[in-house]
Structures
1.
Amino acid sequence: MKRFIDIFGRNLWVMMLLLGLAFVNVSCEDDDDDNSGDDKPMPEESMTITDIAAGDSDFSILVAALQKVGLDDDLASESSEFTVFAPTNAAFGDLLTELGVAGLDDIPNDVLTSVLLYHVVSGSKKAEMIQTGYYSSLSDGPMDGYGLSFYVDMDKTMINGRANITATDIMADNGVIHVIDKVILPMTITDHAIANPAFSSLVAGVSKAELAEALADESASFTVFAPTNDAFEMFFTDAGITLDDLSAETLSSVILYHAMGDFIPASMVEAGYYPTLSTAFERNMSVKIDTEGGVFLNADSEVVATNVVATNGVIHAINKVIMPPSVVDIAIDNSDFSILVEAVVKAELVDALSGEGPFTVFAPTNAAFEALFETLEITGIADLTKDDLTPILLAHVVSGNVASTDLSNGDVPTLNDQKSLAINIDNGVSIDGTINVVAADIQGNNGIVHVIDKVIVP
């Protein structure tokens, strides 16, 4: 029995040794296989936006267009992410027919570049991230740093009211592709208004006023504060009228009062008075912009959307139609004239100065009135009677719409028969030797206002 145990023990030891050697041998062979250069895992193949487009025959014209202007390398870069709304071959075919050209070679490179970049947005935006609204493309607008905008209507899955989004979320290593069935084209201010259903009332007004062509002029640059449909509905309800009740001439004046002859993005909007394209007395009307607590025009119309960049300007949406103010309204809408307004009310001159006019008002600031109170040793308007105030106020008003450029050296009569103003324009505009015009030509619908730094005392 002992001998059997000894033999079994020796054999068991031998078997374990052989198994151990076999295990080591297999492990070494596996290690040799793992270290073989031929069997190393290959890196995954890069699939950029350009790669995906090049691999799909339905994007062959898009790829050819990108290559023609040298944008194919840009969209193959993995250092940035892009969202591309990619037109199909059929979409490009429709564009060539629309333009009346035979092929891409007939389109200048700068034009083609602008169109192609108009389909590209910075960043990767999957379909679930896209909401109805405006998006800034990589196509250059009228001012550096402001890309041309396009409008996406996700209820209809359309862009600019022109192209249908037919497929979404084709993922690339450097972004995402959404497929569209039309090539979208950069739009003018008029085109943008037409493309957004929220501006249909504005479009109807522009059409009736025969301003569509003017606001599509790409040789000019505009800033348009565009009232929404709700703003026009409120305007018509308050006035008890409809669009049909307004003449083309009246509509033109109203609409152009919302437009300025320059490109003013939101970042450049500052508090103050701005001349508009609407004219009265052959001069541009003024609109007051207040930037405290939001941006408001003439005190009560708020800017609700900004920087819709068109090829010929920029649109900011507003929630109320603005109307040109009277000279009284100009004072009421500016907190720096609150003492002047108090005086006009106490002197019962509001109705008179709200009439047809025209009037030229030299308007003293609050600081000017406070200096007068100190000189008179009184606390304020409450210490002055109507009879005290009336001749003072009328000495600040001249009959007619007299802009600063119309002034010349000499005496100018006022509505106070006992007081004329001694005007001097040799070094700015001064009155009676010591009173300075510190801001000029605030144009209203019944006259013009110039701001002065002292009260005129008859």
Note: The chain has a mean pLDDT of 91.
2.
Amino acid sequence: MPTLRLDGRSLTLADLAPLAAGGDVSLSVTKDAKAAVRRARALVESHVAAGDVVYGLTTGFGKLKSVAIATEDLETLQRNLVLSHCCGVGDPMLDDEVRIAQVLRLNGLVRGHSGVRVELVDALVRLFNKGFVPVVPQQGSVGASGDLAPLSTMAAAYMGHGKARVGGRTKTAKAALKAVEEAPITLQAKEGLALINGTEIMKAVGVRSYARAVNLSKAADVIAALSIEALLGSVKPFDDRLARLKGSEGHARTGANVRALLKGSAVLESHADCDRVQDPYSLRCIPQIHGAYKTALAHVGDVLASEINAVTDNPVIFPETGETVSAGQFHGQPVSMVLDYLGMAAATIANVSERRIEQLVNPDLSGLPAFLTPNAGLNSGMMIAQVAAAALASENKVLAHPASVDTVPTSANQEDHVSMGVTAARKGRQILDNVENVLAIELLCAAQGREFHKDLRAGAGVEAAHAALRRHVKPLKQDRFLQPDIEAARALIASGDLVRAAEKAAGPLHP
């Protein structure tokens, strides 16, 4: 199991990839980071000892920022803050997402600008390493003063409230703490606020979605190449000279992928001198469409890579100058906007995939048997598979409406502009679910189309992808219950096995 040494500055998306893929890591904190945590804590304790009125340390919160709190009530203040903010609703977040959020919250704390105790950091590290996973409802954050409701629920579990999962089993938080031999945490001055002010929930969902989206970028090229083979398309639009004329790196990477996948294709050679002048856009414009998706992913990745090392709570402690600055680090707009971008880009992949499915199943367009069945009429073949893809692609068009352009005032108008970042993240996740299913249907249809050209060798990468599917799904000779086929194809895509099979034959593909 890899160990992440957190210092608040150098965490990467690659470090989080095992968690995003459902695996595990262990955590430790560097000595320098712990020293930074101690310096910030010393400033907090000096303010408390002096009786200073400092927002978040010795006052109420939000609209109640002017209410001073007595020193003897500061622990109660932090307890009340966390529990009163546990207003999340809806289905729980995925365990993988919560685990990423736990890492990100810790990484922000150890930067040394949050004012928590080293003892709290150590306890959170132990809980993570022992597999303590708070159960966190998905809904209830507006992504402005941090992801308050879900992060509060996460913090409350550390305190023994709510529920948590250990060893894959859901328990009360108290029982889960007992199972890992840890006591409930008692928060001291500033610590409750530090745990709940942050954008870790939207970032956690976004990090996991980004990892899925990178896999889908490659998988979409593999499946499109298989569709090109099935439809006797042309490789000419993927010429690298066209990419250079376009000046788009995403275009260039897509073209290179498809050329590599189609290399050695006897199918395309047999079709080189046919009378078809141009392929439809869903084939001919793959470099432009898939390339734009790759360009979007690059931007999303750049922003997330920066944000996972950001200090996002409030107020921010500057121990070197003795300042405590109240600002807007917790606002999720930077993350919300790029997660909307990710959702819109992914929706486009489903749109063009569904159009290739139509090309494959429609005999007037494909030259293949109607609905890809040898005995159309008696059999409906892939007729309704295309309908399902159309339904999913259309659903994505609704989901792709950006959440980041919405706002609603909260906290008695103190928080008068919000980011809706978790909404953007959740919508993006659902869009990716739909994209995986649409691509699964295209994979089934393209592979079925290949059955009618089996006398001719396809490109090495395409052959490998086709063989990978056939280990799980047999050719369609007569109508059968198709839902398990779609599920098997989706699992092959989502696991990364389809891409790995194609890369083994065609070489590494560009994301």
Note: The two ends are 26 Å apart (CA to CA).
3.
Amino acid sequence: MNKLTNKISKLNYGYFLWHAAFLALASSFMDIDTIMPAVLGSAGGNAFQMGLLVTIMLGGASFSQLIFAPYLHNKNLKRKFLLIGINTRVLALVFLAFLFFNFNSFPDSLKIVAILLLAGLFSFSGAFANISYTDIIGKSIKKTKRKSLLSLKQIISAIGLFVSAIIARKILSIFDVPLSYAFLFIFAAVFLSIASLGFWRLKEIANNNAHINLKQLFRFMWAEVKINHKLRRYLLVINTLGISISLMPFLILFAKENLAGVSIGNLLFFKVTGGVLMSSLLFYFSKRFKYRYTLYTIIFLALSMLAFTFFSSNTSWLFYFVFFLGGILVVTYKITISGILLEISHNENRAMYAGLVGAGNIIPAFFPLLGGWIIKTNGFTVFFLIVGIIILSSIIFIRRLNCVR
């Protein structure tokens, strides 16, 4: 299929919303900001291993797009590869559930290695799927409907997340670790499988891209960075502001070391509540908000999270509010960064841009690993200070980005 009609766009709009709804129901059970760090902590993971986990799940996944991008760019139709990526994630979740059903049968060192490996499989397969997803959504939805889709997708996702967060909190309160985590991963695998059904009937528009290899990809990347000033500034923004979305796993570690009685289920619930609220606001104002101002909002949220965490050592309720702000931050960042990428790319280069952006996401990719070392050697105060300085520096690049929308 080579022509995007209004009818096809409308049908695909619905399929993407189906996927968003059931993915949201799965997401709370495999949340990378609360559940996955807590899972590693249950196996005795330290600050450095927490940093490694975050690097794998955020940075490693982004870098793997560099390898996947040329291969997927050469495919005119990408739905099959999108489904392969999603189903591999389901497989990783099933293995994680098996690990926690038999948790007491393994030594701690093996548990940590298994969690890191399966987290890697989950993240890399997600990165593989995301390139196809970005390309398909860009060429299969009318340009005038993209921002409303991204915003509506977020509000539907937020509602699904809210429901699944309540279920997840209940599971965590009924069952003890490790059984509670095993059930969480089973729920995640089931809902993610259902979410993938939305793509079986997707009407994909074929590309006619010239074939490219990894060497040509590097040439393409260098050429695009030189000629596209918006792309350069976009890369600088995600390399500075991007570390804000890796904060919450480290805050889980902070709570483990400094706060007594903090509930992982409640942290997840507050995070999701913040996400629901912000998704609703961004959807309602989808025709009016500007990406530049949402980027400034992210800076304010990240710095507020750092400040409130610093003063929450003896106040658990304030720490829950930090995760409420974190939910707002994550939703705002995802909508903004996805929207800007669609704006600065087009159908013929979108898959390549996804790989380029993944490869160019250098500081957020490696900073969590460095952050774990900083915390281990210098403590949380130095870590918070460094993070704050990097996030503030993004103001310079945001001012020069000049997004149209």
Note: The mean pLDDT is 80.
